[in-house]
Amino acid sequence: MDPRGAAAGGDERYPHLKRQRDPAEIAYRWGFADQAQFCRAFKARFGCTAREARAAARRAPD
User: Fold this and answer.
1) What pTM value is reported for the model?
2) CB neighbourhood size of 46 (10 A)
3) Phi, psi at residue 16, to the nearest 5°?
C-alpha cells in the first residue's frame, strides 16, 4: 500500500477534525497524480470508498 493512502485516509475518516474537503483536493494534497489514483488507493487500504468512509464518520457517535 502506498503510504500516502493511509495518511490521506485520515482526512476522510475524521471529517469532523477538518473542514470538508472533496476527494480531489485530498488527492492532490497528499501527492496523488489524480483523483482516480487516490480513490483506488483509498479503497485498497480501507475497503470502502472515501464517500462511504465520510458517511460512516458522520453516523458515528461523537
Assistant:
1) 0.61
2) 17
3) -70, -15
Q: Is there a contact between 8 and 30 (Cβ–Cβ < 8 Å)?
A: yes
pLDDT digit string, tens, across residues 14-25: 555 555 677 788
Domains of the chain: 3-59 (1.10.10.60)
Q: At which residue does the C-alpha cell 470538508 appear? A: 20
SS3 call for 22: coil
